[in-house]
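Subject: design request, 249 residues
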């Protein structure tokens, strides 16, 4: 086998592995009640950083390999697939364009998170497994720039506006809508998305008992770095894939 042929096979193997992980991420987030029928998860193309991979407009619980489409960062589909894409794909493209460090993005409407988009209670981490969301959880309000809308982030202009609020953080909330999570890879963005959901649930429960004690900046940094390292990520990913019905993959 020539060097060129070997490289071609390696590239194709990398693409296929990324596609498999993206399908699993969709199924995991649906199984874990993070993403509902209208959320989505994407990954930057492993060989072409100016593109990203995202399912066609379909409920994540049903996403399969053939549903995955390729887009430019401006949201244009690569190829001639006639199926409808997600209207909010611009969330993903804008984040990838503005944040070169990000390679995976989720957008979801986890019900436990939604109250924090509409009140002044902090969603800062209160337990160590939620440290992965980071110390700052800003809220983006589309009203500030766009007034009354259908509440969807369906243009690059809105996507870039959201990304300015996200800034260098891992999570941003969307007022009356949901959240976005951004990370270096799919396993990390799933960990962050699940941690955000759990943190929201626990804060609401704790507030019924008394005042919430949040983690310190140092605890968040140290615990978050540990949990986003390879061993914990692999352990959690294996657990989630088994729960989603794909054990052993």
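Subject: RE: design request

Done. Sequence follows.
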């Amino acid at each position: 086998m020539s060097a060129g042929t070997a490289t071609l096979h390696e590239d194709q193997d990398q693409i296929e592995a990324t596609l498999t992980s993206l399908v699993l991420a969709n199924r995991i987030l649906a199984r874990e009640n993070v993403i509902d029928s209208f959320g989505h998860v994407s990954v930057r193309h492993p060989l072409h950083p100016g593109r990203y991979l995202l399912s066609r407009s379909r409920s994540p619980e049903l996403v399969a390999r053939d549903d995955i489409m390729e887009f430019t960062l401006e949201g244009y589909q690569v190829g001639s697939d006639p199926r409808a894409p997600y209207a909010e794909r611009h969330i993903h493209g804008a984040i990838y364009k503005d944040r070169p460090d990000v390679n995976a993005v989720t957008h979801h409407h986890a019900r436990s998170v939604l109250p924090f988009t509409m009140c002044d209670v902090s969603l800062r981490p209160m337990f160590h497994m939620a440290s992965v969301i980071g110390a700052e959880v800003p809220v983006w309000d589309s009203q500030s720039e766009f007034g009354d809308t259908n509440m969807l982030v369906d243009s690059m202009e809105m996507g870039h506006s959201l990304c300015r609020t996200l800034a260098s953080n891992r999570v941003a909330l969307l007022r009356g809508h949901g959240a976005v999570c951004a990370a270096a890879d799919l396993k990390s963005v799933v960990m962050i998305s699940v941690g955000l959901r759990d943190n929201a649930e626990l804060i609401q429960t704790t507030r019924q008992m008394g005042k919430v004690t949040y983690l310190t900046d140092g605890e968040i940094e140290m615990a978050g770095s540990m949990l986003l390292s390879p061993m914990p990520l692999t352990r959690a990913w294996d657990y989630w894939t088994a729960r989603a019905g794909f054990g052993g993959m």
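The mean pLDDT is 96.
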